[in-house]
Amino acid sequence: MLDVKAIDVTIEDHQVLKETSLRVTTGEVMAVLGPSGSGKTTLLRAIAGLVAVDSGDITWDGESVLGIPSHLRRFGLMFQGYALFPHMDVADNVAFGLKMSGHDKVANEVADALEWVDLGGFGDRTVDSLSGGEKQRVALARTLAPQPRLVMLDEPLGALDRNLRQRLVVDTRRVLEERGVTAIVVTHDRDEASALADRLAIMRDGSVVQTGHIEDILADPADDWVAEFLS
User: Fold this and answer.
1) Per residue in 158-195, is it b (16+ CB within 10 Å) or e — as a string?
2) pLDDT tens digit sequence for 205-220
3) pLDDT, tens digit, for every residue of 69-83?
4) Where are the domains of the chain?
């Protein structure tokens, strides 16, 4: 279980996160929803260990991860825009995290990961030859391949047109469920959040203002801003 406990994060003299708390249970998919600039991406980067936490704590199963380097936390982060390496083929992109983690039998694990996202046989394809949806699947396979204990997806479908996003929402949710991963999905789209996640966390001005099932939040919003934001 992930437990983010009242963390503060300051970047370039600007406090981006303010006593931000979030709990994600093992096997749960949590969507973090909020307007641009609310701190969603910074929250993921703090959990991943890519930005420093000024105060508070982040724990996994009760043990703090703040003193653990990012590459040893066993957390996977899929960046917005996918961040695929254009000079590598699909297989080498998926293998990157596996090699960094010191996995054995990398070729077999790459093949398995591509099968998870319905891209079996795509290993020797170039990144430039892929469609937007295929790039999203490769990035997801690369994130899942090392079998992290937590997967974080930052606007995983934001770069795609709406029709393709609607199709890939179903596929992404299926992959997360089949792999049984604990996941956080950042998005600004309420419908996408509802389709992908078990629960929602609503962020505003660097803090989580409400968490729960979307039906419960719609029925009893924390304040007028939450009600208007979800309308």
Assistant:
1) eebeeeebeebbeebbebbeeeebbbbbbbbbbebbbb
2) 999 999 999 899 999 9
3) 998 999 999 988 788
4) 1-70+182-231
> In the CATH scheme, what is the homologous superfamily, with its name and number, of domain 1-70+182-231?
P-loop containing nucleotide triphosphate hydrolases (3.40.50.300)
The single-letter DSSP state of residue 9 is: E
Question: What gap in Å lies between CA 190 and CA 200, rounded to an integer?
Answer: 9
The letter for the amino acid at 195 is A
CA distance 58 to 50: 13
Helices 132-144 and 162-179 sit at what angle, rounded to 10 degrees? 20
Tell me which H or E stretch contains 92: helix 90-100
Residue 190 CA to residue 22 CA, distance in Å, equals 18
